[in-house]
Amino acid sequence: EQTETTYNRVMLKISGEALMGDQGFGLHPPTVQRIAEEVKTVHELGVEICMVIGGGNIFRGLSGSAQGMERTTADYMGMLATVMNALAMQSALEGLGVFTRVISAIRMDEVAEPYIRRRAVRHLEKKRVCIFAAGTGNPYFTTDTAATLRANEMACEAIFMGKNGVDGVYDKDPATNDDAVRYDAVSYDDVLAKRLKVMDASAIALARDNNLPLIVFGLDEPGGFRGILAGKGTYTKVSG
Ligand code: UDP
């Protein structure tokens, strides 16, 4: 079945903003649907899929604390935002006939399963898409760190970072610099030293220390995720 790609188990990380469409805030159901369809086409290849979705389309801890809220409280609100996004993605995927589990780092048993590593592995073996919600469960972290942590725990072969409006890692911001150049490949150390915008530094360090490659690609191209898994299209590979 699996001739198109060599990957068996992957992590797909998308930011919360990937789900908001042109709205500027919150969830845009047709956009959620489109991403779910992308995930389904990869699922059909037999690839085992983990997902982490951010929460920035709803709430970010840093912006809450900038407005006087206690940082830890604001971060918990951000983590709860990721649960809403995870449930929206679950609903869209199951509407397409893809079985899923939402697995939360913060217990809320009526809403999502608690994170139990061996149970999550079993879901993957049964080809259920595992959507890891509530980040790492700890304030002061990001969902990039959560994606890297879970990818390591689940023994994913790579993290696929789906980005909006950009198709890889550039030497400077391509939105404001016409001469920005995309890297085909770049090392973790260069990402850190040059402060390239990929993931936050703690997530990059966690990927580097465990030799987990990151593939940064654009979410805007339809069919992009499946193409990227097959090594087609433009992307940046971050590795050792
Ligand atoms: N967050 C947290 N711990 C985690 C993951 C997330 O405290 O392990 C909070 C943090 O406040 C963050 C918010 O959840 O701002 C939303 O996550 P993130 O900013 O990573 O979302 P994205 O930018 O990917 O949409």
From TrEMBL:
Pathway: Pyrimidine metabolism; CTP biosynthesis via de novo pathway; UDP from UMP (UMPK route): step 1/1
Catalysed reaction, written as an equation: UMP + ATP = UDP + ADP
Keyword annotations from UniProtKB, A to Z: Allosteric enzyme, ATP-binding, Cytoplasm, Kinase, Nucleotide-binding, Pyrimidine biosynthesis, Transferase
Binding sites annotated in the UniProt record for UMP: G55, D75, T136, G137, N138, P139, Y140, F141, T142, T143
Ligand binding (ATP): K13, I14, S15, G16, G56, R60, N164, Y170, D173
Any GO BP annotation: 'de novo' CTP biosynthetic process
Keyword Nucleotide-binding: yes
One GO MF term attached to the UniProt entry: UMP kinase activity
Localization: Cytoplasm
Keyword Kinase: yes
Pfam families the record matches: AA_kinase
InterPro entries assigned: AceGlu_kinase-like_sf (IPR036393), Asp/Glu/Uridylate_kinase (IPR001048), Uridylate_kinase (IPR011817), Uridylate_kinase_bac (IPR015963)
Domain Aspartate/glutamate/uridylate kinase: 9-217
Region span, Involved in allosteric activation by GTP: 21-26
GO terms under cellular component: cytoplasm
SUPFAM superfamilies with a match to the protein in the record: Carbamate kinase-like (SSF53633)
Enzyme Commission number(s): 2.7.4.22
Domain of life: Bacteria
Regulation: Allosterically activated by GTP. Inhibited by UTP.
Described purpose of this protein according to its UniProt entry: Catalyzes the reversible phosphorylation of UMP to UDP.
UniProt family annotation: Belongs to the UMP kinase family.
Subunit: Homohexamer.
PANTHER family: URIDYLATE KINASE (PTHR42833), URIDYLATE KINASE PUMPKIN, CHLOROPLASTIC (PTHR42833:SF4)
Record-given protein name: Uridylate kinase
